[in-house]
Amino acid sequence: MSGPKTHSWIDDLEIYIAGKAKVDDVKNIHKLSANESALGPSPMAMEAYRNAASELHRYPDPAYYDLRKALAQKHTINAENIVCGVGSDEILKLACRAYLSPGDHALYVAHSFSMYPIAIKAMGAKAIEVEDKDYKADVDNILEALTDKTRIIFIANPNNPTGTYLPRSEIERLWKNIPSNILLVLDAAYAEFVCADDYDAGIDLVEKSENILMTRTFSKLYGLAALRLGWGYTNAKIAETLNKLRDPFNVPSSAQIAGIAALNDTEFETKAIAFNKKWRDWLSAEISSLGLHVIPSATNFILFRFDDNVKSAAAANDYLMKHGYILRYYKGQGLEKFLRLTVGTEEENREIINLLRKFLEK
Ligand SMILES: *Cc1c(COP(=O)(O)O)cnc(C)c1O
Questions:
Q1: What is the pTM of this model?
Q2: Would the CB of 342 count as within 6 Å of ligand 1?
Q3: Domains (range + CATH), the chain
Q4: 119 in contact with ligand 1, CB cutoff 6 A
Q5: 88 alpha carbon to ligand 1 midpoint, in Å?
Q6: Which of 82, 96, 160, 334 is 20 to 30 A (C-alpha) from 114?
Q7: Ligand 1 center to residue 336 CA distance, Å?
């Protein structure tokens, strides 16, 4: 006997690698590896969170009525068709549980969010990676990869870790060309940061489709990553399915209350969007002027490439870490020549450019 036996696909599953938070022997750490909020959490959300402590003995509202109402008002959408989760990660996983059986196919784009293959393979389904083009999802490549076994297509729009986005017209073209038994997941974790006029997170499409799920998060712009709060917007039938599968009390009261406060804190929201745009543009220009190749970003992070074999991404990563700056370095995923930098505070942004300059001149 050797103990309980799992499915073979669970034995083979990789564990998600999160952005590093610590470096041995370095005290002052600046964590710019996980696309967290440069301005911290919304002050109104922090206050609401503190006030939630007196109700810790109560189970949360399993239908999170007030949170759904606040989301519905903010986005002018139907509260009935919102599903909340422990981060948007939970919504992505619920979609896989609901629609994938062993042997099914689910598609995701190369150089995108590494949770997708993990969530797909956890169901025993086959994770099919589709080639991208210039670090962007490519609709024609996705359409070519469809088979009669395809059940889900995951698109991060904007995409992590590349920062690129697809315009609304391309998403619509994709949707119009897939059969309605395939679920199209539009992961819009960074939607709030996008300034482009031709971008759309997918709300209209959700409302006219049978097969679209848009996911959103409070972890990025709203700065509530620690509370693990995300949501999905879809049609009544898919919402009902996901609600059957989730835990009844999946979202704690503290997260519900803080989430509502964050939605109401429009001052913080406006400030955070403007701050991000200013420093994303500044960092992109500075990094380019250092001779590194910047992938244009619509998000709160920037992916950039080192083409030199000595002054490489790996060497830069080590150098920055020694100075207390943690960026995201991808050993896998075909991004060995890249680092991903989250927009930080003004001081951090200026210092990272100083450090990069020193590294390159060394
Ligand atoms: C950060 C991120 C998420 C999810 O974040 P949660 O904290 O689970 O809500 C989802 N998709 C992408 C592409 C992300 O970068």
A1: 0.97
A2: no
A3: 8-40+267-361 (3.90.1150.10), 43-265 (3.40.640.10)
A4: no
A5: 6
A6: 82
A7: 22
